[in-house]
Amino acid sequence: MSAPITFVIPGVSADSSTRGARAAAPFIGRLKASVTVTAQRGAGDSNIRTEAVPGEDIVVVDIAGGPSLWLHPESARDLLQSHDPLLARGGAPLAAGEVCVPARLRWRLEDATPVPGATRGFLGDVQVQAVHVITGIVEDKAADFVASKVVQAFDSQVDPGVYQLRPDTLDSLKERPKSLITDGDEASLVLIHGTFSQTPGTFGKLWREHPQFVGQLFKSFQNRVYALDHPTLGASPIANAITLAEAAPKGARLHLLTHSRGGLVAEVLARVCTKLGAAGVDLFKDDPSSATELKKLAELVSDKCISIERVVRVACPARGTLLASKRLDAYVSVVKWALELAQIPVAPQLLDFLGEVARRRADPDKVPGLAAQIPDSPLIRWLHAAKDPIKGDLRVVAGDLQGDSVVSWVKALLSDAFFWTDNDLIVQTRSMYGGSPREKNSTFLLDQGGKISHFNYFSNAQTASAIVNALTKGDDTSPDGFNVIGPLSWAGQSSTGVRAALPSRPAARAAELPALFILPGILGSNLKIGNDRIWLGWRIVNGFEGLAYDPKKTDVVPDGPIGIYYDDLATTLFQDHDVKPFAFDWRRPIVSEAERLATEVAAALDARKTSKQPVRIIAHSMGGLVARAMQIVAPPPGTE
Q1: CA dist 129 → 10, 208, 273 (Å)
Q2: Interval 313-327: pLDDT, tens
Q3: Facing residues of 443 across strands?
Q4: Would you call 627 helix, strand, or coil by DSSP?
């Protein structure tokens, strides 16, 4: 057992009979301490010291206007110690093992990317409302978290299977008889819910608030509308896809409407249905159970000749979500908050799961349904390892929550070190565009604003309408408001959806503008072998072997600057320059890349003999050495 951690809290101790504050009830244990935090000291105020024992207790931090964070004591310590120390001034000096709880939480932004709501060099100045310590949680002795009672209890809320839906109401499916998808020549629609939910929890608001849209769906699919109810924690997306495939008839034509993790179920099935079978199963060498499931799914699909004609993915972590990778206790806390914001009832099983996650400081790697959503998981690597496009139409609905300092602070808390702060509280926006490549154009609609959150897409009139249009518009008709996903967004480098390479200009027009070479810094250039990017892309998680430097090998070539760092600069300067991004192989001797730069600069100078326009260079870090080496060893004519 780890040593107790003492939290020093400025405020007033609450009588345990009042049950503290909003977050600590309903209890999953006993309230050990509850302190209302005060920003200004007054009569009777003092520093209150309370202990939390890792492995026994959990710490609940109430954020004013925001979530209640149910945290393992060590997670709470790490979070509180990461904030600006000037906010923790006052009171007696801290002893060893003590952690000060500031009245306000914020991070400095000197080494981070500012986000909306940041002011005066800080991110998200938010107030701590109260701190509670809960103990006496019923300890689950199961060493394997996936075998624990809380995981099993949560998944038992559904009886896995396919159910035919009615247009008039959408209630719990657990007590209803399961269905087989009706045989026939027409396409059927299947709804697939996400993590921590069931079919009515995810799609219920579409039925209640937009019955006209539901009627449109049932009319379009001639009442062939079904739902896959499936466990989302103890089972992998591959296992869920098997359940759907087992209920499908031979020759089934399926259209899939998915939310969140449900999109991974659809991606798995769509890829296997494109005659790829279990190709790439070697990526699951460290996950033999998933490898076995994938082979079973491939055999099932091959026998039934199932085809996935269209997938409409809403907020899918197609490239995984960093939110589930770290701080799982904080992540599940915000899931609970997001459900509350969407006025969706929080199941008691979720509270039990949250409490056990916080007590154990559980690792998402140990829960198959969550492990699949981690960016470097075998499943995510497998989905993006496909070299050939798969059949079917893909339409993506993405969202990015924008709001006040509390929202900005929560987004940064989850995304870790201010990276990928574009998200809908649960999934990073730029992750929503990925997946296996399609034969046809993949399109998207991005909704941004203060009312966007992970559980609001089917309530929000704009996104609900877009979802229905995406399902009912024909193959040759792009739904209103949808655009083709740009390559940078498809690659997971941009949250905007439309980001692409710079447009081309006619050579004569380009020569009338100043030429501008942009040289990245060290590691700032993408590298590829043939059509496969080996740096920096999502396939890098498959291994670094391709980056080994051999001066005799010439198959590795530069593939443009890394967009997240240089695209905004290039786009801005493109308005009045002929921008020429100069990616280079940062593994090779600088002189060799300098000689290649000299050749391109000479060509740009030659093209401007008539216009007399200059050639300019912006070089970052190691790129400056390349430019300087060019001046020394191979200066183009006219640059001496």
Answers
A1: 11, 35, 52
A2: 999 999 988 766 667
A3: 395, 484
A4: helix
Q: Is the dihedral of CA 268, 269, 271, 275 positive or negative?
A: positive
Counting residues of the chain whose pLDDT is more than 90, the rounded percentage is 48
> In angstroms, rounded to a whole number, what is the distance separating the alpha carbons of residues 537 and 533?
6
Strands 68-71 and 58-63: antiparallel
Alpha-carbon gap, residue 162 to 322, rounded angstroms: 30
Q: CA geometry: angle at 449 spanning 444 and 452, to 5°?
A: 75
Round to whole Å and give the CA distance between 338 and 340: 5
DSSP 8-state symbol, 273: I
Evaluate if residue 298 carries a pLDDT over 90. Answer: yes
What is each CA distance from 516 to 10, 570, 596, in whole angstroms?
A: 56, 9, 16
Element (H, E) at 624: helix 622-633
Q: What is the DSSP letter of 390?
A: B
174-183 CB contacts, 8 Å cutoff, 24+ apart: 174/198, 174/229, 178/247, 179/226, 179/247, 180/247, 180/248, 180/249, 181/224, 181/226, 181/247, 181/248, 181/249, 181/252, 181/254, 182/224, 182/249, 183/249, 183/250, 183/251, 183/252
Within 230-261, where are the H helices?
A: 237-247
Laid out side by side, the sheet with 578-581 consists of 578-581, 515-519, 615-619
Q: Which domains does the chain have, with CATH numbers?
A: 5-135 (no CATH), 147-320+366-400+431-490 (3.40.50), 507-633 (no CATH)
Decide if 66 contacts 23 (C-beta within 8 A).
no
Task: Give the pairing of strands 122-135 and 58-63.
Answer: antiparallel
Q: What is the mean pLDDT of the chain?
A: 84
> Angle CA(151)–CA(364)–CA(174) in degrees, nearest 5?
30
Token output for 256 = 């899939």
C-alpha separations of 102 from 70, 236, 306 in Å: 17, 40, 57
Q: Which residues are CB-neighbours of 618 under 8 A, at least 6 positions away?
A: 516, 517, 518, 519, 569
Q: 22: pLDDT confidence band, cut at 50, 70 and 90?
A: very low
Residue 399 structure tokens: 């969202």
**Could you tell me which of 459, 449, 404, 409 has the C-alpha nearest to residue 429?**
449
Q: For helices 237-247 and 288-304, what crossing angle results, to 10°? A: 20
Q: Are 223 and 289 in contact, with CB atoms under 8 Å apart?
A: no
Determine contact, residues 103/10, Cβ cutoff 8 Å: yes
How many C-beta atoms surround the C-beta of residue 303 within 10 A? 10
